[in-house]
Every structure is written in C-alpha cells, then in structure tokens.
Specification:
This protein has 17 helices and 25 strands. It is an alpha/beta fold. Helix 15 packs across helix 17. Helix content is about 35%, strand content about 25%. About 5% of the residues have low confidence. Strands 6, 7, 8, 10, 13, 14, 15, 16, 17, 18 and 19 form an eleven-stranded mixed β-sheet that branches. A six-stranded mixed β-sheet has the order 22-20-21-23-25-24, with helices on both faces. The chain folds into four domains: about 130 residues, Response regulator (Rossmann fold), CATH 3.40.50; about 110 residues, Beta Barrel (OB fold (Dihydrolipoamide Acetyltransferase, E2P)), CATH 2.40.50; about 120 residues, Rossmann fold, CATH 3.40.50.2300; about 140 residues, Rossmann fold, CATH 3.40.50.
C-alpha cells in the first residue's frame, strides 16, 4: 500500500523539498526531506527507504559523491536523480551506480508520480522474483495476463501482464518437437534486445533454432522448468512454455513492432465452429468467424494478415466455389482447406489457388508447422550480395556519421565481422543512405583486438574527432550466437567535452573468421537495427 511506502528527498533547495512533499503526500506516500546533503546521507543510510530522490548540484556535497557513499552502504535502494544541469559524465556515472530514473528540472507532478510508480513496481517485481528463485523447485510466481490476444514477432510470442511485465516464449515447429536436446534460457537481470536472440533450442544433431526477443528490456524472471524439462514445449501451452519475463524499455514500441496472428474461420456448422475456436485460441490465433463467402471476403479485406481456414466438411459441395470467389476478390489471401480423409473434393481444391490442404490437422501438431510457415519468414540465412568483385576489401573497419542531433558518431569494427556488400554491413549502410546521413565508410580490417595496443591507438585517434564511439568485437562464450553484451565508459574529446564510448561484444556464430557473422534473417536485421539506433540516438 502507498501508506507503507517511505520516500526520502535530498535537495538543498527548500522549495524543491516542499514541492516533493506536497506532491507525494497527497498520494498517500510517507515523505522525509533533507536540504543538507550530509544529513540526507545519514538519514538514507540509517533508515530503510523504498525510494530516494537525489539532487546532483548541492553546495555542501556533490550529489554524485553522496550517491557513491550511499551505494557503499546500500547497494540496492532505488535512487532517482533530479537535476537542472544534465551532463554526459553525470549520466554515465548514474548508469554505473544503477540509478533507477533521471528527471530534469523543472519537473511536473505527473513526471514525479510516474517515476515513483515505475520504480516501485519494478522493485516489487524484482523482490518477488528473488524470493521465487530462492525456492527453485517451488511453483513459479503467479502471473496474470493483461490481455487475451498473444502478439508475435516471427516465431517469438509475447503477452502483457497486469504488473507491466511481459511474458515471452517461442513456438517450435512440430517437425522438431521430438528432437529437442536443450533449451537455452537468458540470465536474470540481463538485457534482451529486440530482434536479437533471446533463447536457443538445441536439437539432437546440435543444430539450433533461434527464438528472437520481440522487445528490448531487462529480464526479471526465467522459466527454469523449461530448461530442466525441454519436453514442456511439446504441449504448446503458453502458460507453461514461456521462456522469460521481461520488463520492457518502451511498452508502446513493443506493441508497435509485433502483431497478432489474425485468421478468419469460414465454417457453416455451429458445432464445428465451437470445436475449432478453442484450438485456434490455444495456438495464439485471433479468430474472426464467417458463415458466408461475403463475410469471409469482408473479414479478409479488413485483416492485416489475410489467412483463412476453410472448413470443407461444413461447406459441402459449395466449398470449391467459395475458394474461387475468395481468390477472385482477395488475390493475396492465404487459404488453408481442412477436409476429411478421402474427400471427393480434394482434387477440386488442389486445382484452386490454396496455400495448404490438410486432413483433420487442426487437431494434431501438424497445425503448428502450418502456422509457422504462414507467419514466419526467417529460416534462410541473410545473403545480400550487391557488389561485383573489385580491388577494394569487402570488410568494414569504420563507419562514421553525423547524426540528426549534430553528433559525430563512429563505429569501429575489430576483426572481419562486417561486410560492405552483404549481411549486417550492407543493411546498415543502406539504412544510412535512405535517411540521407552524411556517411564515411572505411573498407579494411582491424586485425588487433579492442584492448590491444593497436586497437587502443585506433580508439584514441577517434576520440579527437567523435562525440560518440561504438566498438564492435566478437568473443566466443556460452551465449547464443548473435547475443550482444554492452558496456559504457566516458572520455573527453579534443575540446574537453564529456563523451561516451559504447563497447559491444557479440557472440559469433562460428569459429571460422569469415563465418562469424552469418546469422538468420531476423538476427541479422536485428543487429543492424540495433547498431543504427545506437548511432542515431540523441
């Protein structure tokens, strides 16, 4: 309850402390304030506050120094930074000290209350998850969905929870269900990035199916049971086969980048419809029912994914003519005909333009393969050769842009990881050209490592001319191919301004140099999108 929540505000401006007390007290929070930083630090370390608001610029003690001393005493208390003088160095140090939020003055009551709500909700979830993980074999923490429709990102699915977190899983084709050797799950508190691998399903022949993350956010819980008993996925039960629970960075964008599996069911018999609907819902489909060809056509035109299941048995001899009309009015419809064995209409249906003809497969695992083929498109590796052989190297060692915020940004690639004419490099350059960014591309190979002398010299040279440096290097570990690890450090440019280095380490796909960055389509485009966003962000 809010009345049990205690908040401390440390700011040397009395009027700011009074504003906080008024805003938060009116909402039922217990609020203490201190305008002297030494008193504030003493109070913060002697009481168990649920949240601390901390000003950075104070006369008696620098707010960042106070933050550092507080972390020595209490490494876990949520701290929200408030400042009227933001800088790159304080932002970097705040991240290092794990600040929960960063609010600029002047602020509004809505901004303060939203920050409190978000921070306390996340703290509550992490506390509950810690208790759950300590009881490893007890029942997984109860979770309540906020909406029925599942949303999909290629083979991955997600569902929003009432607590703001999102459950994420993957649908595995029936063809591979009996060949699963291991399911790799992410680590709690790791960061998942949209489009990059979240989980790997290892098959008996040691090949791997990658489940991409459908969103960016912090992993707050994982399903240990699915790792210990991979056969759980065979039941295709969303409540049991989820992989991770993630607190998203941006919930709005999460929904924007995913879609529902919308299907239309053309069925004339009510009893058959009642049998089909629960099965389709269990498979994550959002179903529109139609009993006539006219309604089916209307539903297909309105749906983004033009997939229709035709119940041949209930349509009887009229079924093929229904399919002909659908093809005529909705040429891009994906028609799946469900019929009984030895049907006399099979030949008529197969002559029509249909996606699939199946026999009672809606009630067998074959439907998993059908839906997988209809709604996913990333099985083949990314091959985007666009350049004829020439004298210039195809490997990229450096990409430099001036982004829309007038920042000079450099990406340094260590090793033969990025190619000019295919894969990640090609997609990334194409995105810059489409957006008309001033672009410089150096085609060569930096054969040293990021931490070696030559690598450090490359980085030092970039410090003289860049506001942001991003480095990319491959390092083999136990992660899933394509997963990224991100670290940040600050530096001062030639003009003495605070700037940032972002060091990215990627898990390669193989040990052979020229095969290290060969990923499936989703991972390839996900990495390119991630790099583009890092270089163009404000």
């Amino acid at each position: 309850m809010k009345t049990q929540t205690s908040i401390l505000v440390i700011d040397d401006e009395t009027i700011v402390c009074e504003s906080f007390k008024k805003i938060l007290s009116n909402e039922g929070y217990k609020v203490d304030t201190k305008s002297h930083p030494h008193d504030g630090l003493k109070l913060a370390t002697s009481h168990a506050y649920d949240l601390v608001f901390l000003d950075l610029i104070m006369e008696e003690m620098d707010g960042m120094e106070l933050f550092q001393n507080l972390r020595k005493k209490d490494p876990d208390v949520p701290v929200v930074i408030i400042t009227g003088y933001p800088s790159m160095s304080t932002a970097i140090e705040s991240v290092r000290l794990r600040a929960s939020d960063y609010i600029l003055k002047p602020f509004t009551p809505e901004e303060i209350l939203k920050s409190v709500d978000n921070v306390l909700r996340q703290k509550d979830m992490l506390n509950k998850d810690a208790k759950t993980r300590s009881a490893k074999h007890l029942e997984i923490l109860e979770w309540e969905s906020a909406c029925k429709p599942f949303r999909f990102y290629e083979s991955a699915w997600l569902q929003k929870g009432m607590d703001g977190s999102v459950r994420v899983g993957g649908q595995i084709p029936n063809l591979f269900l009996n060949n699963i050797q291991e399911i790799q799950i992410p680590e709690v508190n790791s960061i998942a990035y949209c489009g990059l691998p979240l989980s790997g399903v290892v098959l008996n022949d040691d090949s791997k199916i990658i489940v991409p993350s459908p969103l960016t956010g912090r992993v707050i819980d994982v399903n240990y049971e699915i790792a210990e008993t991979p056969s759980i996925v065979e039941g295709n039960n969303f409540n049991e086969s989820w992989i991770a629970r993630i607190y998203p960075k941006d919930q709005g964008k999460t929904i924007q980048d995913t879609h529902t599996r919308n299907v239309t069911l053309l069925c004339k018999e009510e009893e058959s419809e009642k049998a089909y609907l629960p099965r389709l819902y269990d498979l994550g489909c959002n179903v529109t029912c139609a009993h006539t060809a006219e309604k089916a056509v209307k539903a297909l035109i309105e749906e983004k994914n033009k997939v229709i299941l035709v119940d041949s048995v209930s349509l009887s001899d009229a079924g093929p003519s229904y399919v002909q009309r659908i093809n005529l009015e909705v040429p891009d419809a994906k028609i799946i005909v469900i019929d009984k064995k030895d049907s006399k209409l099979e030949e008529s249906y197969r002559k029509a333009k249909i996606l699939y003809y199946c026999v009672d497969s809606l009630f067998s695992n074959e439907i998993l393969d059908i839906l997988f083929c209809v709604f996913t498109s990333f099985n083949a590796p990314e091959i985007l050769e666009t350049e004829k052989p020439g004298f210039l190297p195809k490997s990229i060692s450096r990409i430099h842009i001036t982004n829309k915020h007038s920042k000079k940004v450099t990406l340094l690639v260590f090793g033969e990881l990025m190619h000019y004419s295919k894969g990640i490099g090609h997609i990334l350059i194409k995105k810059y050209l489409e957006k008309a960014y001033p672009l410089e591309v150096m085609r060569s190979i930096i054969r040293s490592g990021r931490d070696e002398i030559t690598g450090q010299q490359k980085i030092e040279k970039e410090k003289e001319r860049s506001d942001l440096i991003i480095t990319l290097e491959a390092e083999a570990s136990d992660k899933i191919p394509g997963q990224l690890y991100k670290e940040m450090e600050d530096y001062k440019n030639s003009e003495g301004e605070d700037c940032l280095i972002v060091n990215l380490t990627i898990q390669p796909s193989g040990v052979v140099e020229n095969e290290q960055m060969l990923f499936n389509n989703v991972t390839t485009r996900g990495i390119a999108d991630f790099l583009f966003n890092e270089m163009t962000a404000e």
